[in-house]
Structures are given as C-alpha cells and as structure tokens.
C-alpha cells in the first residue's frame, strides 16, 4: 500500500482535483446536526467540531483544533446507494396490455428521463447528474456497513442493478476515527476504528499532517500531481498509537462471543416486554442504521392517470425504505404476524445481532451507535444485550 | 435470463370457479422469449401484479408438465379481490417463479403423504399433477412412482373443498382421504367429519419410510407435525410450505422474515427441522 503525507491545508487540493469529476458527498452542518449531503466547497466540511452524544441526545460544539474530530451523525451513506424512495418502473395499462417502462435499469447515472410525469407527493431520487459519487469522510463503520449492504443487494439471488452501478462508480475517501463518539462500540465487533480495506483513500489526521493511504489505482495517479512526501515509519507509528488510543477511549462494548445463540435462546426473555414499554415503535433506529435495508414497493397513481374516457391507467412503482417497526410490516391477509411492539423490537434486534449471521455470514451491526443516539427514549442496544444474558 | 424485478404480461386463458371464494386461473405468458425461459418447480410461487393495485404472492397450482400455468386464488385482500373481477383475455403482471420447491428427490423409493388444509392444497396440487400426469405420459416423474402415495385433505365444509371434482382422478395413483370440519346438511357428503389430525388413524402407513409434504394454516400444521412425530415420522422427512408477507421475492425487502429465514427465497417449502425452533414462538 502506498502511504504518503500531505500538509493539512493542502487537503483542499485533493478536493478541488476531484470536484470536477465527481459529485462529492460528505459531512456538512445542517440545523445543528452533521448530515451527509452534496458539498460544493471544501470548507463546508465541519472542521473543528465535536459532538456530545448520549442516549437520545446529540449536541454539536466547536472548539477542537483538529480537522476531523467529529464522529457520525444521523445520516448514513446507505441513502445514496439505496435511496429512501426510488422509482422501479413506470407503467401504462390498457385492457389488453401492461406496458412497463423501466427506469434506471442499465445505468443509474444516465441522464435518461423516464417518461413518468413528475411525482408530487413522493420525492423520488433520480440521478440527473452524470457524475459518479465521491464519498468523503466515510468512517470504518460506514465502510463496513456498505460491505454488508453489498451482501444483501449484490450477492443474493438477484443483483440490484441500481445499487450495483452506484457502488461500482463511487470513490470512497475514508477517515480514520481518532476520537470515538460517546455511543461508538465498533472496536468490540472488529469493524473499526481503523479502516483496513474497502477504500480508495484513507486519511489519518496526524499532529501536523495528514497521512494518506492509497487503496486503489484510481486515486494513485492523482497523488503524483500533489505536493506529497513519503510517510516515514514515525508517521505510521503515530497513526497506530492514535488508533490504539481511540480504541481505549471507546466507552461502550458489545460482547459478541455468545452471538447468535444468546438471542436464539432469549426469544421468550421477559426483558422484551420491558423494552416494549419504553419503545415508541417510531422506527428511528431503522432509519439511521447504516445496514437496515427493509423496503416496501407500492404503486403511485396520479388522479390524471385514471381516466374513464380512455380505458388506460398510468403510474409508477416506487420502492421506499420501510421499517420492521411499522404496524403493518408483517401483515398478511387476515392477520398480522407481529402486532405487538415487543415482537417488533425483538425482530429488529434479533435480526441485527443474530439472524443476520445466518443470512449473510456476519453480524448486521457495525457499532456506529446511531440507534442509541437517535432513539427518542434512549434505548441502548448494548445494555439490552447485557440484560438478556441474565 | 429475464429480469425478475420487472413484471411481464400474462393473459388469462380460462377461469374455473372452485368454491364460492376460490377460483383457478390459467394464464399464458405473452412474450415468447420469456415463455421459453420461464421454468418452475412444484411448490414455487409467482408474484401476481395488478398495476395500480399491487402485488400478491400466489403459489402455482399446475405442474411443470401441464400446458398452462395455473393459480388457485382465494379472495383475501385487495389484489385477490381485483383478480376475482377479471375475465378471460384480461392481462395481469407476473414476476417469478420464486422460492424453494417440494424436494421430489426425497420421495424416490419412499412413500409420500400429502397433507393439505383449505386453500393449502394449491401448491400441493402441483406435485399431485406432476406425479399423476407424469405417470400417464410416462415422463421423467415415473421414477417416483414406486412408493405408496396418500393424500389427506381437510376443508371447512364440503362446499369449501377445492378441486373436489378432481379427486376421483387422483385416486388412480393416490389413496385419498378427505375430511370436513362440518358437513353441510344440504350437501351430500360421504367422507369423514372432523379435524384432519383424526384422519391419521384411518390411514395405514409406515412412518419410517414416509416423506410428508404439508401446507395449510399454521396451527393445523403444528398439530399435524406433533401427531406425525408421535407416530414415529422423523422431523427431517416432514416438509411444510409457509405463508408470509412476501413483497420482493428475492430476500431484499425483509417483510417475509421468519426467524433467520426469508420465506420468499429460503422457503416457502422448508424442512421442518430447519425451522422447528421458531414455529412455536408467538409473533416471530
């Protein structure tokens, strides 16, 4: 692996170099929260911020002299590879024929407009830009989460072509976490804080410079144009000690030694009822979770698409994020398999910490702690798991 | 291969009313290329799609050897209600086939017991016809013809019995035992009255040499499995077809999760011992 270092203020050069060829997605402050969005300017990245996270709390404060001292906000990169709502196809139906106009089938990046009319109520993500994504500031947990989504959307029975095209064209610039968030527990499930693979470039913020690790040839050529110098052994030692320090400072842990069996044998544990008394079934945890992939498809019809004069019907089929906390998520004709909150929380946590292992070969949790921060009543997955042991 | 995320057109060839709320539809894929590529196994299902209404997972009730794809549908929700209003020649959207199938390799040199409750006979009719028509045409399925074959079928009343006119033909190859929960006074009924578990006492079978294919309401299947195992049928030889809220058909939407299984791709046909631990758990 190529390791170089660059002066801190020169990081901007990389940004400017890639700005023309990529749509840059990265952290930016919006309404006192760090979200992930398109960033046009290098200084949009919230340097020098820290956040205090707790159970159900999040506060941003300025005051750090470091560039990347913040950790993860509510957004995760899944919203760009698997958008909250997107059109699968548009249709027209006449008496003898259903015409399907599939959208984004070959390439998600194409400028081709599907011939569906504009949707009023549902904001559907359509990629009008022809530029591929550059994900800036991905943390180790986010990269791990993306790899889990690959297992779902690319390695299953059918490949999701939309996801695939975004994933293949995107570049990833990761940032090694040196200051853990208050709810982080990635080191105990081996997904972080150090980024080990799955990146095009990984940045570590040393005391006086940035250490850049180049993972793929696609960014290698760019490095030659930049005023970089080779990283010394001391630089690498500094990185290692900073990461070791970050691991040490991580406050939460999760014990994975007994998973998945601990969950299997605890499916009737009284604690589920106790959690259900607190859980609002709002589904926040599933929305902020970088690996939650559940979705629903439904038809969206405009009133103008239903006409009595012309026996024809037109509309679009939309796929949007859903949550196992929704009341009707497990509904079949004549009944609902999980009417109680107890069962729905159990489903979520069991899926993350045990079913996922059987389905995709690894844990469904990456230890980012978002579900703890953004749970309005502060349910803490790490603590609940501890209680299940008793 | 065609794209299983996009529905293709199929036209309704004929419609046969089975009971007051259940109807069999024979459909034909319109696109020639897809027609050629489309191949299913007994036990699999299609997603039937009505634009503007939605999709519903419906098992295929015909055999691969049949000339048509048939679906036997009971009116239960939006999609099935709208399907019930369609006529011959109307077009519907289809995605599939999806899911696992009845393990026909398991019944080589063994006896087969088919157990169905209510509309649960639909996916099993695919196996029945596969064996029956295959025998008549001396096609490949002849290799499964050695063992004894039993059908146990239970319905609410004689009027709710699906494929009632077809059972006499099944008797060419199967021992058929029928039961109803309640016999209608107006309806002439010669069969048994009572729960389907009671039929087990009327049948003579070798529990150690029998493979069971079962589909029906979850409660029925649970008590049936209990009875079968009490009689010595090993759990590994019991296969059940589950019903869940299938939405994508490919294990990416999460709706049909049953414990760690995606019913749409790991099922709907499961070996009992693979899901045993989750069957008794409420709201799993």
UniProtKB/TrEMBL annotation, chain A:
<dbReference type="InterPro" id="IPR009051">
    <property type="entry name" value="Helical_ferredxn"/>
</dbReference>
<feature type="domain" description="4Fe-4S ferredoxin-type">
    <location>
        <begin position="353"/>
        <end position="384"/>
    </location>
</feature>
<keyword id="KW-0411">Iron-sulfur</keyword>
<dbReference type="GO" id="GO:0051536">
    <property type="term" value="F:iron-sulfur cluster binding"/>
</dbReference>
<dbReference type="GO" id="GO:0046872">
    <property type="term" value="F:metal ion binding"/>
</dbReference>
<dbReference type="InterPro" id="IPR017900">
    <property type="entry name" value="4Fe4S_Fe_S_CS"/>
</dbReference>
<protein>
    <submittedName>
        <fullName>Cytochrome c</fullName>
    </submittedName>
</protein>
<keyword id="KW-0408">Iron</keyword>
<dbReference type="Pfam" id="PF17179">
    <property type="entry name" value="Fer4_22"/>
</dbReference>
<dbReference type="InterPro" id="IPR017896">
    <property type="entry name" value="4Fe4S_Fe-S-bd"/>
</dbReference>
<feature type="domain" description="4Fe-4S ferredoxin-type">
    <location>
        <begin position="268"/>
        <end position="300"/>
    </location>
</feature>
<keyword id="KW-0479">Metal-binding</keyword>
From TrEMBL, chain B:
<feature type="binding site">
    <location>
        <position position="264"/>
    </location>
    <ligand>
        <name>[2Fe-2S] cluster</name>
    </ligand>
</feature>
<dbReference type="InterPro" id="IPR017927">
    <property type="entry name" value="FAD-bd_FR_type"/>
</dbReference>
<dbReference type="InterPro" id="IPR001433">
    <property type="entry name" value="OxRdtase_FAD/NAD-bd"/>
</dbReference>
<dbReference type="GO" id="GO:0016491">
    <property type="term" value="F:oxidoreductase activity"/>
</dbReference>
<dbReference type="Pfam" id="PF00175">
    <property type="entry name" value="NAD_binding_1"/>
</dbReference>
<dbReference type="GO" id="GO:0006221">
    <property type="term" value="P:pyrimidine nucleotide biosynthetic process"/>
</dbReference>
<feature type="binding site">
    <location>
        <position position="256"/>
    </location>
    <ligand>
        <name>[2Fe-2S] cluster</name>
    </ligand>
</feature>
<feature type="domain" description="FAD-binding FR-type">
    <location>
        <begin position="5"/>
        <end position="104"/>
    </location>
</feature>
<dbReference type="GO" id="GO:0051537">
    <property type="term" value="F:2 iron, 2 sulfur cluster binding"/>
</dbReference>
<dbReference type="InterPro" id="IPR001709">
    <property type="entry name" value="Flavoprot_Pyr_Nucl_cyt_Rdtase"/>
</dbReference>
<keyword id="KW-0479">Metal-binding</keyword>
<dbReference type="InterPro" id="IPR050353">
    <property type="entry name" value="PyrK_electron_transfer"/>
</dbReference>
<feature type="binding site">
    <location>
        <position position="253"/>
    </location>
    <ligand>
        <name>[2Fe-2S] cluster</name>
    </ligand>
</feature>
<dbReference type="InterPro" id="IPR019480">
    <property type="entry name" value="Dihydroorotate_DH_Fe-S-bd"/>
</dbReference>
<dbReference type="InterPro" id="IPR039261">
    <property type="entry name" value="FNR_nucleotide-bd"/>
</dbReference>
<dbReference type="InterPro" id="IPR012165">
    <property type="entry name" value="Cyt_c3_hydrogenase_gsu"/>
</dbReference>
<keyword id="KW-0001">2Fe-2S</keyword>
<dbReference type="GO" id="GO:0050660">
    <property type="term" value="F:flavin adenine dinucleotide binding"/>
</dbReference>
<feature type="binding site">
    <location>
        <position position="248"/>
    </location>
    <ligand>
        <name>[2Fe-2S] cluster</name>
    </ligand>
</feature>
<protein>
    <submittedName>
        <fullName>Ni/Fe hydrogenase subunit gamma</fullName>
    </submittedName>
</protein>
<dbReference type="Pfam" id="PF10418">
    <property type="entry name" value="DHODB_Fe-S_bind"/>
</dbReference>
<dbReference type="InterPro" id="IPR017938">
    <property type="entry name" value="Riboflavin_synthase-like_b-brl"/>
</dbReference>
